[in-house]
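Predict structure. Chain length: 192.
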Amino acid sequence: MDAKEILKEHISKFTFLSDEQLDYVFGHFNLIHLKKGQSLISEGDFVNHEYFVIDGCLKAFYLNDNMKMFILQFAMPTWWVTDFDALYNKTRATINVDCISHSTILSISNEDREKICHEIHEIEHFFRWRTNKGYIALQKRLLSFMDNDAKFRYEELLALYPQLYNLVPKHLIAAYLGVTRETLSRLHQAKH
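Prediction complete.
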């Protein structure tokens, strides 16, 4: 399936648009191919786009002053990623987004997203729904960090996204869970 069809199918799961409307919406996206390790957003960048993953896997992360990495999000096919704070508040990026594997993504500018949302009510509904789902997922993740131990968070991650363990290097999964690589190995061995 090509990028246009993947985006159309994704949008159509949540709202109805005519083929003409879907074509019009797709016309506001640009196709980008990125290599493994390539950066999409770096801390300090101005951010004017959000990205829809067609193929591959990206990570959104923060590096603290000691260069310790904290993974905020993995972005797999049909997921969205950007520095939403920088995008909506027109500030510089505070996070980084780069490719874990070769990736194909679609980008849409903030201006184009606002334009099509103004013109097509159903697209505005789609983006609002998507934002709400992202907020809910983030809230659940934060609550899990507050209430659950590393073993539970690891098992929860595998239950929700079983493909991640084979797709993402283990040190990145450890950074996402907030544990060391050694702790992740112990958790994996205990489960299997």
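Summary: The chain has a mean pLDDT of 93.
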